[in-house]
């Protein structure tokens, strides 16, 4: 069976000579108030849209396009029945950017950002199952339902800031991100989160 960790210079047993990614280690979370929409009055964020389309037959096999209809990522998943099964998100250079191993408790790795860990550890449900927390780039964020959308907020001592939102449009899934979120290196992280939240599989 195809082992995605043996390609693209990812560290693993089948590729023992690979260098270890310089992934950012999770920093201690500083939790503030529960998320709420960013208040009006400040400068409006500038948004970018990324579309998960061409489902075959679902989001686990699709293409992610962005500004100017450019293909940013290709998502491919092993055929059903192959255990444990992998989903690989490749960037425009066909390099693996995200790998998900569909074990009993799924395992995820975002290259150079999130080290290999269980998805339930990376995006745990909060008490009451009202939202999920997520740590990346040394910061903590919250994914919370917002009407028909799922919105990502910052967490901290200041006013929560909106960084991204996910919503469905016909047969597509839209990831809407602020330019700031893309600039600070959250694109691959948000693509991975979108995939987990929209794939319909158990991620806990």
Short description:
This protein is mainly beta and 204 residues long. The protein contains 3 helices and 12 strands, in the order E-E-E-E-E-E-E-H-E-E-E-E-E-H-H.
Explain the layout of strands and helices.
Elements: E1 47-53, E2 62-65, E3 71-77, E4 86-91, E5 96-101, E6 107-110, E7 114-118, H1 119-122, E8 132-136, E9 139-146, E10 149-154, E11 162-169, E12 172-178, H2 179-183, H3 187-198
Antiparallel strand pairs: 1-2, 1-12, 2-3, 3-4, 4-5, 5-6, 6-7, 8-9, 9-10, 10-11, 11-12
* β-strand amount: 35-45%
Helix coverage percent: 10-25%
Q: What integer is the average pLDDT?
A: 83
Order of helices and strands: EEEEEEEHEEEEEHH
Number of domains: 1
Strand order of the largest sheet: 7-6-5-4-3-2-1-12-11-10-9-8
Roughly how many Å is the radius of gyration? 17 Å
Instruction: Give the overall silhouette.
Output: globular
Through-space gap between termini: 25 Å
CATH class: Mainly Beta
The beta-strand count equals: 12
- The quaternary organization reads as single chain
Q: What name does the CATH topology carry? A: Porin
Model regions low in confidence, pLDDT < 50 over at least 5 residues? 5-40
Q: How many strands, which pairing sense, and closed or not: the largest β-sheet?
A: 12 strands, antiparallel
């Amino acid at each position: 069976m195809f082992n995605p960790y043996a390609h693209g210079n990812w560290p693993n047993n089948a590729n023992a000579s690979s260098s270890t990614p310089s992934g950012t280690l999770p920093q201690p979370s500083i939790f503030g108030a529960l998320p709420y929409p960013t208040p009006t009055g400040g400068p409006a964020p500038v948004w970018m849209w990324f579309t998960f389309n061409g489902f075959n037959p679902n989001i686990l096999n699709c293409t992610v396009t962005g500004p100017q209809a450019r293909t940013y990522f290709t998502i491919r998943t092993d055929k059903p029945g192959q255990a444990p099964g992998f989903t690989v998100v490749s960037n425009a250079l066909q390099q693996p950017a995200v790998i998900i191993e569909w074990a009993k408790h799924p395992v995820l790795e975002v290259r150079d950002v999130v080290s290999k860990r269980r998805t339930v550890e990376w995006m745990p449900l909060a008490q009451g199952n009202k939202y999920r927390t997520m740590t990346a780039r040394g910061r903590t964020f919250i994914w919370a339902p917002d009407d028909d959308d799922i919105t990502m907020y910052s967490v901290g001592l200041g006013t929560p800031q909106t960084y991204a939102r996910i919503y469905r449009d016909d047969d597509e899934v839209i990831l809407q991100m602020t330019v700031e979120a893309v600039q600070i290196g959250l694109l691959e992280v948000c693509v991975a989160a979108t995939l987990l939240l929209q794939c319909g599989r158990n991620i806990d």
